[in-house]
Amino acid sequence: MKLLCPKEITASVTHLDLEALWRRGIRGFLMDLDNTLVGWDSDQLTEEFQQWIKRVQEDGFKLCLVSNGIPSRVQRFAAEMGIPAVVRAFKPRRRPFYKAMQRLDLTKSQVAMIGDQVFTDVFGANRIGIYTILINPLSVKELKSTRFVRKIEGRMLRRFVKKGWIPSEAVLRRNGGF
Ligand SMILES: [Mg+2]
Fold first, then answer.
1. What is the pTM assigned to this prediction?
2. Which residues contact 54 (CB under 8 A, 6 or more apart)?
3. Separation of 31 CA from ligand 1 center, angstroms?
4. 31, 36, 114, 130: which could join 125 in a potential S-S bond, CB 3.0 to 4.6 Å?
5. Residue 36 C-alpha to ligand 1 middle, in angstroms?
6. Which pLDDT belongs to residue 78?
7. Which residues of the chain have pLDDT under 70?
8. What is the set of domains in the chain, with CATH numbers?
9. 124-143 as b/e, with b when 16 or more CB fall inside 10 Å?
10. pLDDT digits (tens, 9 = 90+) for 57-109
11. Distance from the CA of 19 to the center of ligand 1, in angstroms?
12. Which spans in the chain are helix H?
């Protein structure tokens, strides 16, 4: 159960406290793509996120995409951002996370996984003890199958609040219909 619980919940990548993460020893981010950096139905990285990616790199963080999305799409965005990507990741499998750490030459205590889904991004990274950050999905318009997952996610998160694992405000702020 605890393996499904993120260490941190925040509205979007731009809300991350980079200084706090740096102090924690984090030097790299394993990034989900769809609904974390771009809407799953979008072809464009927003200006705001482009700036954020530049800024974190200037701050000394390394980035790597880890995505289950369409490989050509993931590669295109990775090239645009100038960062490596692990494609066909099949999160929550452990392998893609190890691969990404290898690409960044960082250990599991030096990276954080940032993503919008509990069952792939959070669960996969928690399994190997990586620090996990759940962010609100960018696009509320989602596939039916994803909407179903969101419902279960919502239920889980509320249970984590009851257990005192995560603050209730964080979950209230999360959109997706609950
Ligand atoms: Mg995603």
1. 0.92
2. none
3. 9
4. 130
5. 6
6. 97
7. 175-178
8. 2-140 (3.40.50.1000)
9. bbbeeebbbbbbbbbeeebe
10. 999 999 999 999 999 999 999 999 999 999 999 999 999 999 999 999 999 99
11. 24
12. 18-23, 47-58, 71-81, 95-104, 123-127, 144-163, 168-173
